[in-house]
């Protein structure tokens, strides 16, 4: 089972995933995130995976798919995760080379805003 | 059927316990299968990390059977687990489409279904989290993925 919760901080959408992210859960998560992302207030995404207890390569597909979409609109994407097994999976896929990983949401949101501001200059 | 002569010799010998599970190729059974495998292997008392490795590998193999083997059509998946003193062998068997080019399918980032936003990392995950992965497949007949893992934590 996977629960998904959305919250906003400025133009950053925080996606909090609680439970298990596999192929069974992936399509629903993609649809719900994409529905949020079409709202004009949404520019950046922070994936909060700190309550995620399981993820397989389907989760990598979800994150990479959102990365491709958000890249087109110059948005930023950040990950919050400290579960060693999920971090290992993310590292295996090379995600940390393009998406920074933080240990808490505040740091991730702050970084998204900083990078967005820097780009705007 | 493609044969692989390299037997998983070091894991052979007599299993101390065995289990077979047959279930329909439904995505809701992905979590069921990995929890059953983890529960079965728990008899050996592996670490949380080792259990997570097994769960993830099973999840990948079962997902492949559902998406690629049966392409979301009906069919059964068989999971055979053999437990040894310090290791497990898990086979995930389907009677689906089979894989035309196993070598290509096992390449990191390769996916036959890019439109589905699959990462193409399934086999790479299995190979990273398990010690050995052996794939046998025949087009139109099905696929068998056999995976072994030795638990280094056991006996220490």
Topology (SSEs and partners):
The complex is a heterodimer of chains A (121) and B (156).
Chain A: E1 2-9, E2 12-21, H1 23-37, E3 44-55, H2 57-72, E4 77-80, H3 84-92, E5 101-102, H4 105-120
Parallel strand pairs in A: 2-3, 3-4, 4-5
Antiparallel strand pairs in A: 1-2
Helix pairs in contact in A: 1-2
Chain B: E1 17-24, H1 29-41, H2 48-69, E2 76-83, E3 87-94, H3 102-105, H4 122-129, E4 132-138, E5 142-150
Helix pairs in contact in B: 1-2, 2-4
Q: Give the C-alpha Rg of chain A.
A: 13 Å
* Head-to-tail CA distance between termini of chain B: 40 Å
Helix and strand run of chain A: EEHEHEHEH
The CATH topology of chain B:
Heat Shock Protein 90
| DSSP summary, beta strand count of chain B | 5
CATH architecture classification name of chain B: 2-Layer Sandwich
Q: What portion of residues of chain A belong to β-strands?
A: 25-35%
Order of helices and strands of chain B: EHHEEHHEE
Which structural class matches the secondary elements of chain A?
alpha/beta
Describe this structure in words.
The complex is a heterodimer of chains A (121) and B (156). Chain A has one domain (2-120): Transcription Regulator spoIIAA (2-Layer Sandwich), CATH 3.30.750. Chain A contains 4 helices and 5 strands; from the N terminus they run ββαβαβαβα. Chain A is α/β, with parallel strands linked by helices and 121 residues long. In chain A, helix 1 (23-37) packs parallel to helix 2 (57-72). A 5-stranded mixed sheet of chain A has the order 1-2-3-4-5, sandwiched between helices. The model of chain A has no long low-confidence stretch (mean pLDDT 93). The radius of gyration of chain A is 13 Å and the shape is globular. Chain A has helices at residues 23-37, 57-72, 84-92, 105-120, and strands spanning 2-9, 12-21, 44-55, 77-80, 101-102. Chain B has one domain: Heat Shock Protein 90 (2-Layer Sandwich). Chain B has a 5-stranded antiparallel sheet with strand order 1-2-3-5-4, covered by helices on one side. In chain B, a hairpin with a 3-residue loop joins strand 2 and strand 3. In chain B, helix 1 packs antiparallel against helix 2 and helix 2 runs antiparallel to helix 4. The longest helix of chain B is centred in the middle third of the chain and has 22 residues, at 48-69. Chain B is globular and about 45 Å long. The A-B interface holds A 20, 22-24, 30, 54, 56-58, 60-62, 64-65, 84-85, 89, 92-93 and B 27-28, 30-31, 34, 49, 52-53, 55-56, 59-60, 63, 66-67, 116-122, 124-125, 128.
